[in-house]
Amino acid sequence: MRFVDEFRDAEKARMLSARIAALCEPGRRYKFMEVCGGHTHTIYKHGLEDYLPETVSLVHGPGCPVCVIPMGRVDDAIAIAEQPDVIMTTFGDMMRVPGGRGSFFDSNAAGADIRMVYSPLDSLKVARQNPDKRVVFMAIGMETTAPSTAMTVLRAAAEGLDNFSIFCNHVTIIPAIKAILDSPDMRLDGFIGPGHVSTVVGCRPYEYVSRDYGKPLVCAGFEPLDILQSVYQLMLQVHEGRCEVENQYSRVVPWNGNAKALRVISEVMELRPYFEWRGLGFISQSALQVREKYAVHDAERIFSVPGVRVADPKACQCGEVLKGVLRPWECKVFGTACTPETPIGTCMVSSEGACAAYYNFGRFTRERVKEATRS
Amino acid sequence: MCLGIPGEIVELMAGRDDFAMVSVAGVKRAVNIGLLEDEELKAGDWILIHVGFALSKIDEEEAAGAIRMLEGMGQAYTDELIALAQSDLSS
């Protein structure tokens, strides 16, 4: 328990750890999925699994938007970037994500004008400053970033900035959780629900998880204590035979979400019939596209997009990692052929990807714990 | 991209309902507050910022906890702050 010193409240952490242990029934194993990449990061950074009994394990879910983008969409984006007079703008996280024909970095080096931005509003500014160019924003993210993209499209429409468009790759988390619940190779006892996504969607959309699937879900904050507290709440529900949606992160997440954010998303975007997720395959109504009304700002309508489908490299097991079937270090290429510097799979690219988080933090914590238990 | 960064509102911008000057890690930035129109924001309030937009209002204690947490993240937080510093959203 030496790392408990890093916690804000060491005593509380010890207490939660003991309470969780006390709820374990003999001979039973418990498996909970943390959906959000931010939670994965905290779990590895602080070695939280070491505070849980051996019979309680956490598996990582598909809640990292960079990780779930399929290679074909990266290739499509690069195809747009390579068209004449195009400036592609993107969050820094996307630059190293490999497509079938290389990454944004590679395409940039080969001559395409690809610029990193912090916000879609920066992209809008690029469009204003370059009226003779076609400026495309590579829109990615779950419900956390979709409202910002939608607000930016509304602003572009209000200003009549017709040279600004988005290549919309926004995905929605609810259908992905459903796909995992329907997956035959996954047996879970409950979910640590997303934090920031839930500030937008609230807690109500998760109610089907308890109602239809009989699993508890607790929306959690990002500090180590938040996650331990959420595991405790999940264990308590299992112990008492309950399955409910609970909000551990109520200091930030309103039960009903952010009404304005939901309104602007639905003004600008609508559900796609289906979308491919890396590792999970095609999931119906799991992503957003630009509504007809804003067609002038929709890169998919403006440019010819190849719509290629690229199979993941054979060596890469991101799919299994994203479904929680494999732990990062169980992947064949983890830490050898695939590292944050030369990623093969998306999970190694984003700092919130399970593999990168484990590569940067988790393995050292494990080593330290092994040493500590040896001496 | 997914990091929520706390900032303290320094002042609401006159004539720009949808923007506020916000102090983030000691640097003043313009941040879009259009998604929080249901909240009554004022100088001294803390907000959680995602890609240039305030997504939720938080209290000071939550902000302090989140900042401690982010500082512990190292490079990912540094990168986000550099990206934020290079961005100018006010115009």
What can you see in these coordinates?
Chain A has 375 residues and is of the alpha/beta class. Chain A has a domain at 67-171 and 287-302: HypD, alpha/beta domain 2 (Rossmann fold, 3-Layer(aba) Sandwich), CATH 3.40.50. Helix content of chain A is 39%, strand content 17%. Chain A has helices at 10-23, 37-45, 65-68, 71-81, 104-109, 120-129, 146-159, 173-182, 196-201, 207-213, 224-239, 259-268, 299-302, 318-322, 354-374; strands at 30-36, 56-63, 86-90, 113-116, 134-141, 164-170, 190-193, 217-219, 245-247, 269-271, 274-277, 281-284, 288-290. Chain A has a 5-stranded parallel beta sheet with strand order 2-1-7-8-9. In chain A, strands 4-3-5-6 form a 4-stranded parallel beta sheet, sandwiched between helices. Chain A has a two-stranded antiparallel ribbon with strand order 10-13. In chain A, helix 5 (104-109) links the parallel strand 3 and strand 4. In chain A, helix 1 runs parallel beside helix 11 and helix 7 (146-159) crosses helix 12. The longest helix of chain A has 21 residues, at 354-374. Chain A is globular, with a radius of gyration of 21 Å. By secondary structure, chain B is of the alpha+beta class. Chain B has one domain (5-86): SH3 type barrels (Roll), CATH 2.30.30.140. Chain B has a 5-stranded antiparallel beta sheet with strand order 3-2-1-4-5. Chain B is globular, with a radius of gyration of 12 Å. Chain B starts with a strand and ends in a 5-residue tail after the last helix. Chain A binds chain B through residues 6, 8, 37-38, 41-42, 45, 64-66, 91-93, 116-122, 125, 140-141, 144-145, 147-148, 151, 196, 199-200, 222-223, 251-254, 258-261, 264, 350-352, and chain B through 1-4, 32, 34-38, 48, 50-53, 55-56, 58-59, 62, 65-66, 68-69, 72-73, 75-76, 79-80, 83-84, 86-89, 91.
